[in-house]
Amino acid sequence: MIDVENLKVQLSSLPLRHARKQEAEEWGTGHLPGIPDHLLPEVSKAVRDALVRIARQCQSIGPRIVNIKRFGTLGDVNWGGENTTVDAILREQDLDAIAEELLENAYYSGLIAGIVRRDPETSEIRIEPLVGHVEPVFSRTSPTRVAGILHTWVEPDSSQSGTSKWTVRLYDLAERVMREWTGLNAPSAMTRNDPTTIVEPSAEYPAGAPMPRFVFTGRDSERMPMGELATLLPLLQSDWSSQVRGDRIEESTAIPQLVVKGEAEDGTDERSSTHVIRLIDDGDAKYIIPGDLTSLHNHHDRKLERIREDANLPGGFLGNQTPSGEALQEANAKFVSSNRWYAARLSRVLTELVADLLVALGMESDAPQVTVSINREFTKNQEIRNAIDLYREGLTSLEAAVRHISVFMPTWSDDEVEAFISAEAEAMNPQPVVPGQLEPVDDEVPA
Prior knowledge:
flat; three-stranded antiparallel sheet; alpha+beta; single chain; 17% strand
């Protein structure tokens, strides 16, 4: 049961969490509403225009992070069963596109959430991601049990007028009822001054309607969902600031600067390889050689490495020095493990949404299991190596190794894969040299 008093307290702080998720999405997509002035260094008015020009050339590293994580997690979306009617329905739903949007929203919000709903205009029943701001309402008696789901957003037309109006949907999971309030000045306006009552909703949907399906992918200190990009936000902003500062320093000092001492004759503003600068009396001219900016670049590289570690990205992905040996293997293993973790949770939510869809269509007995498998390009080399190792050690047959490796080499014939395995196994375990075949060393003196 949803406790109204606790709900009012939660709604009062919801705009802050909404702003956090929105800011994470702006930095994750790279669509910043403007130049973040609070991240720029303090400069005089004379050089601010140049600094702003440089800032416009810098971009958040968030899109690169989101793209590589999404590419690594979403390999294939498949489902079981042998019902051709269900297959046609799910192909029409385009589960690949739904999975992509569910996953990307989770990077910002910390929640994979979707729902089955009927389009009021076309009456078509579809699976849809819950876009906007979504967060759970916990039970008063159990801080781990979710009693309801809040789905809120700022109405687009209101933001243009300068006065934000909110739409709030409250899904009561116990009663299976959805209530909607529109045109609110703030989310908390859906509750009255009396902390035990709620304002009459603008619309209420009958009991038994499909409820959201969700799973957490990250939490903050108050157990509210918080996405990876929201957690990484301070580092993303620090990296952007380093880009601006570094580019400004390089542009200002990375080329030799001419210093002229004394009064120069008229017409000496020209700069060319053949032009002579004439100075009157005791004049002098020399170049100031730029300083070494290596420490500046190394400092930025350390920031990138911190981002790569915290985001569980593969080694060397952000353009800094690629780790070698065990460090590279560990980084790639963490990346693959993170991808599988997201894929498992995405599979769970999609399976539940597909079941809800088929229930709404009167086909609940034919609901299949949906499986999201990660992109195998990142595990390809290791799985091939493992199969060859097992064959070389005699722990599996050549036929089994061929079947396993053929998946990664779809254009190769079985004979070509077999020859490849045999050659790799022999190279990993060469035959010992016969003593009679030893050749004399270079510095051996003939008798």
